[in-house]
Backbone:
């Protein structure tokens, strides 16, 4: 009986931690999507502060940090240095779809996201 109880408790603990991590991931993705949704040539000062907070947060994943850095560096279009990093996220089968979407949009941005991209971002931002 005790081993079964231990397994159940561990399962609950893992599920709880997983939900907390997903909630943190969702908040980061929402923030990045909102910044990109409202982008006009480059991120404003408030956006840059939010992106820096994402990059400084220890709970931020490597992919989220890459996206935040690419947004921070964006000046009318993605920087040449960030292109391969974002493309790697797009091509990574294990990467979350939300980050693949944002990465793909950043790769195609020319001053601002397209209307179709804004629809995708709106879904991620809410």
Residues:
């Amino acid at each position: 009986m005790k081993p079964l109880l231990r397994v159940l408790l561990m399962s609950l603990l893992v599920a709880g931690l997983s939900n907390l991590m997903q909630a943190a991931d969702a908040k980061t993705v929402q923030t990045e999507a909102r910044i990109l949704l409202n982008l006009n040539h480059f991120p404003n000062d408030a956006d840059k502060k939010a992106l820096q907070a994402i990059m400084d947060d220890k709970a931020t994943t490597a992919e989220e940090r890459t996206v935040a850095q690419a947004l921070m560096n964006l000046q009318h279009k993605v920087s040449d240095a960030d292109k391969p990093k974002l493309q790697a996220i797009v091509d990574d089968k294990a990467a979350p779809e939300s980050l693949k979407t944002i990465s793909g949009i950043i790769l195609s941005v020319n001053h601002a996201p397209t209307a179709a991209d804004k629809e995708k971002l709106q879904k991620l931002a809410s």
User: Anything to note?
Assistant: The helical segments are 2-37, 45-56, 62-73, 83-91, 97-108, 115-125.
